[in-house]
Amino acid sequence: MYDYDLLVVGSANADLVIGVERRPGAGETVLGSDLAVHPGGKGANQAVAAARLGARTALLARVGDDSYGRLLLDSQRTAGVDTVGVLVGGAPTGVALITVDPSGDNSIVVSPGANGKLTSADVTAAACLFQASRVVSTQLEIPLETVVEVVRSLTPDSRFVLNPSPPQPLPPEVLAACDPLIVNEHEAKVVLGDTCVSDRPEDWARLLLAKGPRSVVVTLGAEGALVADGREVTRVPSVKVDAVDTTGAGDAFTAALAFRLGSGASLAEAAAYAARVGAAAVTKEGAQVSFPTAEEAEAVCGGLPEDAVPDGGSAAGRTPGTKGGPDDSSGTPQRGEAL
Questions:
Q1: What sign does the CA torsion over 316, 318, 319, 323 have?
Q2: If exposure means fewest CB atoms within 10 Å of the residue's CB, which of 31, 147, 198, 226 is most exposed?
Q3: Which residues participate in catalysis according to the annotation?
Q4: What is the pLDDT of residue 325?
């Protein structure tokens, strides 16, 4: 019996958000909206998203001994996340500078701060959290050597979920533990490097699997997602909503998928549910404040799914569930071609 459905090891940032009509070019200044400050960071976002859905969640992270750090701790506790693994001090809290355009798309620059001080020793010291967790999820806003130690700390029966964002080449030890590796178009191409010789998402999935992951999820934005587990590629349709702000939607998708996998769902079923959660998240401004409850996520499934993207279609590189228009997707997986 596990104490936690999900342990998230990752970043905790203060999100400093400004709305812009358009992003400035080099040497250009543009006016934006009033500054808004929200709790964020990929790790903290995933923990809150999972807890909102009802998952018993713990977070292993590091924040500064400052006002942003206190904001982040308060947001985790309010969501019901166990913060016993959140360490305080060593550097200022990490900060993400985010611009959001009128379509809801965002651009992000991260100053790691205390996230860069989350060490392998911190992971080793938290062995009890790993032993108590059914699924462990992480990202790359913390040092890669820390992620490697996360992999080495996994119990034989736990499942490891990785979103390599911001992307970088991954060591074989990390790739071999992923079940699944979750990537968008940009992340897939960075992880694949010179082996990325195709524009077809199905080919990215096959090439990624050849690098060692047990399973792969490729998110395709308005075109949905696909999942691959070594036997076949399965298409998961998008959910049509009017996107307001995509900040944090990918984190909500990853958290929902990890939670459902730990509950016994198949990878395709978990991805379909995660698409609804990600879609619900983009209908509100902000990251954590936009994450839905289980009831709100289940409500995002009223009708027909989007058509599957034909072979050779291009990937949008965004989180599933951001298609504009009325919500009418059931999120039912569609079988694709065999591997």
A1: negative
A2: 31
A3: 251
A4: 30
